Amino acid sequence: MSDAKAVADRLVKSKRLNALLTPPKELRSALTAQASAARPTGVLYGMPVAVKDNICTLEFTTSCGSRILEGYRSPYEATAVTKLKAAGALIAGKTNCDEFAMGSSTEFSAFGRVLHPIDKTRVPGGSSGGSAALVGSGAVPAALGSETGGSVRQPASFCGVVGIKPTYGRVSRYGLVAFGSSLDQIGVFGRSVHDAARVLSVISGRDPRDATCEDRDPLRLPTVPESLQGFVIGLPREYFPPELDPAVRRACDRAVRLLRDLGAAVREVSLPHTAYAVPTYYVIAPAEASSNLARYDGVRYGPRFDGHADLRGLYRATRGQGFGAEVRRRILVGTYVLSAGFYDAYYRRAQQMRALIAQDFRNVFDRGVDLLFTPTTPSPAFKAGEKLSDPIAMYMSDIFTVTANLAGVPAISLPVGQVKGLPIGGQLIGQAFLEDEMLEAAYALERVVPATDEA
Amino acid sequence: MSVSRDDVLRIAQLAELDVEEDALADIADQMSRILDYVAQLSAMPAPTNGTVKAFVPGPDAIRFRPDEVAPWPLAFGPETFAPAFKDGFFVVPKLGQFDDPAPAEL
């Protein structure tokens, strides 16, 4: 089918980005087979959707950007992928990502870093950097990513595309390789709010195979509102610190003026525990990761790093050689904070802080605020290599996104301006399971914001 | 520095992870920086009204599925993706020594 050929051609052309892990030949034959099987009545008929490499597919390998799963072919596919196919979408290959979704720059993939689609000396963000770069370069209209601390919204912001993290429990995680189970959600990238929203609508809804997925109907798409009359939008002061990049501030100030012009009531609010969000996240996420990644042992799947006399030697060699530096670091930190004598000081504290962070959001929403508007990231895309030797600096690029994961609420990043040609993202954070309200505001803002103008 | 070279070795043993000798100093340094950074959580004032209830998003209660035999959910079996598989079993080296001396208190 010529459609499938055109889709494959566009993806192969973007090869220099290193965003796609699927080899061209395999991609072409899989796309052709899918195109001839796709149901023409599906709401996404013919739409190519690239899928992050930590989401299981039958057509392609699922390596999570890791040597420890290199060449792994899953015997089942994610519910989100099944739903996309049932809606007529074409699964357009697997996208490069930070190993096991641990990173904020897609420099921690075992298969090489992903280039920013506009400036190859910069990072596309992460961990879903391959998906963001492919949508940003125009190779596909939409892609799936995954979020644990901002891994869809942060790269969406860096690459000038729309990224949505749904409410925890909105989308089935069956077939999403687990990282931090109390935080993980499948998210969506799109060229526009509408592209992302319609993919989200298709993959959302109940799934008997995932007990953490809520028993709800799929998300219904709102219409584009004429105005935002009646909306109350809060600006959390902790998200506009003095050290915020001046261009990011200018672009966000302009977006806020536009929200007011659209009729929304805008008021300053406070989420007082925001400063503790990144440390809380970097206790909880590694703790859960150390437990989730215990399953990679060289026995049941993936390659085995052999040559050891006993089973324990096999485990240690496979895990030691199979995991990259950042994953090893997080497994070690996670094991440390859960170990006897340290659990109370780190993990229990972090759990308590998480409760306070979630309460901050409830307090604001209980006082009549419908949505929050913030910058998505403290700066535009940074240079490759800039934060590699400093894990804390890398972690801080998630400072405005981790809170929504900790609180389980939905959020969307959309382009609100540029600085020297580099995109700047603005974020709307909504209330749990009120993605429709969040999307209404995003639709309205997207229509008026000069996303490609210098801020 | 809050994490020593020996701490890294003990934690790596708990995590069943080989760590190269020449990477130990670097890992100890980076773990220390991360743990010192997250230690700011201990500056949080202790809850005054008893305990703060832990927050986990998601459904309040576990939904039970009907107890029915479902069809085999896998498109193919472990013989195609296991590193070593024979006659219905995963093949592994002998168990060997599993009772390491208990790690000393950190």
Layout: helices, strands, pairs:
The complex is a heterodimer of chains A (455) and B (106).
Chain A: H1 2-13, H2 24-37, E1 48-52, H3 79-86, E2 90-95, H4 129-136, E3 142-147, H5 153-159, E4 162-165, E5 185-190, H6 193-203, E6 232-236, H7 246-261, E7 265-269, H8 277-292, H9 311-322, H10 325-338, H11 344-366, E8 371-375, H12 391-396, H13 402-407, E9 411-419, E10 422-429, H14 435-448
Parallel strand pairs in A: 1-2, 1-3, 6-7, 6-8
Antiparallel strand pairs in A: 3-5, 4-5, 4-9, 8-10, 9-10
Chain B: H1 5-14, H2 24-38, E1 85-86, E2 89-90
Antiparallel strand pairs in B: 1-2
Helix pairs in contact in B: 1-2
The end-to-end span of chain A amounts to: 43 Å
> What low-confidence regions of chain B span 5 or more consecutive residues with pLDDT below 50?
none
> What general outline of chain A do the C-alpha atoms trace?
globular
What is the number of E strands of chain A?
10
Oligomer: heterodimer
In terms of per-residue confidence, which ranges of chain A show pLDDT below 50 for 5 or more consecutive residues? none
Q: Could you tell me the number of beta strands of chain B?
A: 2
Structural class of chain A: alpha/beta
**Which fold does the CATH topology of the domain at 1-46 in chain B refer to?**
Histone, subunit A
CATH architecture of the domain at 1-46 in chain B: Orthogonal Bundle
Helix/strand/pairing class of chain B, anyone?
A: mainly alpha
How many helices of chain B? 2
Shape of chain B: flat
Distance linking N and C termini of chain B: 14 Å
Largest interface: A-B, 72 and 59 residues
Q: What does this protein look like?
A:
The complex is a heterodimer of chains A (455) and B (106). Chain A is α/β, with parallel strands linked by helices and 455 residues long. Chain A has two domains: 1-271 and 357-455, Amidase signature (AS) enzymes, CATH 3.90.1300.10; 278-345, no CATH class. Helices cover 37% and strands 13% of the residues of chain A. Chain A has helices spanning 2-13, 24-37, 79-86, 129-136, 153-159, 193-203, 246-261, 277-292, 311-322, 325-338, 344-366, 391-396, 402-407, 435-448; strands at residues 48-52, 90-95, 142-147, 162-165, 185-190, 232-236, 265-269, 371-375, 411-419, 422-429. In chain A, α3 links the parallel β1 and β2 (90-95). The longest helix of chain A has 23 residues, at 344-366. In chain B, β1 and β2 (89-90) form a beta hairpin. Chain B is flat. Chain B has a domain at 1-46: Histone, subunit A (Orthogonal Bundle). Chains A and B meet through α8, α9, α10 and α11 of A and α1 and α2 of B.
